[in-house]
Amino acid sequence: MTTIGFSTDQDVREDRRTVPTDEGDHERFSHFVEKDKLTEAMVMGTPVVALCGKVWVPSRDPQKYPTCPECQEIWDSMKDDQGPEA
Question: What is this structure's pTM?
Answer without folding.
Answer: 0.58
